[in-house]
Predict the structure.
Amino acid sequence: MSGEDRPSGGGRLLTGIAWAWLLLGLSLWGRQTTDGPGGSSAPTTGDVAAVGRPLGGGAAPPHPPRRGRVAPQRVEVPSTGVTAPVVPRGLDTTGRVDPPPYDQPSKVGWYGDGTRPGAVGAALLVGHVDTESKPAVFYHLSATRPGAEVRVTGADGESLEFTVDDVQVFTRERFDPQKVYGPRQSGRAELRLITCGGTYDKKARTYTANVVVSAYLTGASSPSGV
């Protein structure tokens, strides 16, 4: 399928106006092509073992939310080898939030009109799991475990450290928008990393689930190390 024939952005994550529309956007988000996922080893990230993984035990105390945060520029998950530039994404004419363009699978999208990483609430980072020919930026996201570190670097050079406290896979039937998009604890700065998961449904031309990694702010450091 040519780039002109492929749906723009590979499907979309919908805005937070209504939880039901968010569910629809996530279920459609992923490569919507009749050719199926890239390669025969597409991740079965909807495995039952991933659903309801226990919280990280609160080993790291939450860091106070940051004020006046700048836009994120890079995200890293060292335990799974993720390191990627972050680009802001807005709404299209249908009221949806696009992940990065389909021809930029190594980038992560941040919902720029929502919460900024480090601020109170849950900031949303979305990325593709694969392309027609190879893994994309969040291909190994489901391998993340509670307690893992996520680093987000802002345009000012400040590095924010988040600690993963939950990794879940939500199927279409079990999708809980409040758990995915709502804050887990009031007053915390939280982060969500979201990608497609489960198996690729050729008939529906979409993946059967979504992988959601939840983390909370546990540290911050300036470029000078202060």
